[in-house]
Design a protein that fits this description.
This protein has 7 helices and 5 strands; from the N terminus they run αβββαβααβααα. It is of the alpha/beta class. It is globular.
Length: 258
């Protein structure tokens, strides 16, 4: 007769309470409930202003592509330069590359990333800082060089303090800024909703494919980012946005407040 205290794998089940506090039995499944764990998540109260901005962006993304009115999503990312303290070992037959766990900090650089999701084009600029002037000069490059023939440019931004009209007025002056922004329409994400900016998707791809590893100097960072940008532009890599207003209402309506 089978021993009732031995399971079909030939092992005895753990005694209740035999492990450490907060630890499941050794033979429990990996997806067992772990009430001591928590994750960070921000959904909050979705106000009328939040919905207005969200609906504006979702409507903008749903429009058919028009090259005369490009939708440009813009954001920035800080990149820390890390120098190797010992020469890494390159890959060889049957061996992966190896690098020492020690590194030397070599400062930080800022990357402005602008992506036209439907047009399959992106522009990346490397700067030493992330000031109002740096931001304005990057937007000037987009408006006056990259999209000089556009009738109107829809610029999607988050709520960083440098991303507003006042930055252009301070850097360029009121009259020049007014003339320059005549072709630019700003669209802002709701607060705590930068996920609605597709530039974050492109920055994630940039990090996975290029910058998410040790790069020790500005020249190499600039060279590799440029190569990445050119490769994706030549391939016309686009971003297909599928989240609609109807889906937003279905998933988020319980958080709406008047």
């Amino acid at each position: 007769m089978d021993d009732p205290l031995v399971d079909d794998r030939g092992t005895a089940p753990s005694e209740a309470g035999g492990g450490q506090p907060g630890e499941p039995p050794a033979d429990s499944k990996k997806n067992v409930c772990k009430p001591w764990r928590k994750v960070m998540w921000c959904i909050g109260r979705i106000t009328a202003e939040y919905r207005e901005r969200m609906y504006d962006l979702l409507g903008l993304y749903a429009k058919a592509y028009d090259a005369t009115e490009p939708v440009i999503c813009l954001d920035e990312k800080s990149k820390q330069l890390l120098e190797q303290t010992r020469r890494p070992l390159p890959t060889s037959a049957g061996q992966i590359a190896k690098e020492d766990y020690e590194y030397r900090r070599a400062g930080t650089r800022n990357l402005f990333v602008a992506v036209e999701p439907q047009g399959g084009h992106r522009e990346v600029a490397l700067t030493q800082r992330r000031t109002k002037r740096d931001f304005v000069e990057f937007v000037q490059h987009l408006v006056e060089v990259v999209y000089a023939s556009a009738r109107k440019i829809h610029l999607v931004l988050d709520n960083l303090n440098t991303h507003f009209r006042t930055s252009f007025e301070e850097v360029m002056g009121l009259e020049e800024a007014s003339a320059f922004l005549a072709r630019v329409q700003f669209h802002y994400t709701p607060k705590h909703a930068s996920w609605l900016n597709m530039a974050e998707i492109e920055i994630g791809i940039l990090d996975r494919q290029c910058t998410g590893r040790r790069i020790g100097d500005e020249a190499r960072l600039r060279s590799e980012v440029l190569a990445w940008e050119q490769r994706r532009n030549q391939a016309l890599c686009r971003i297909e946005w599928k989240f609609t207003r109807q889906e937003a209402d279905r998933k988020l309506s319980r958080h709406y407040v008047t």
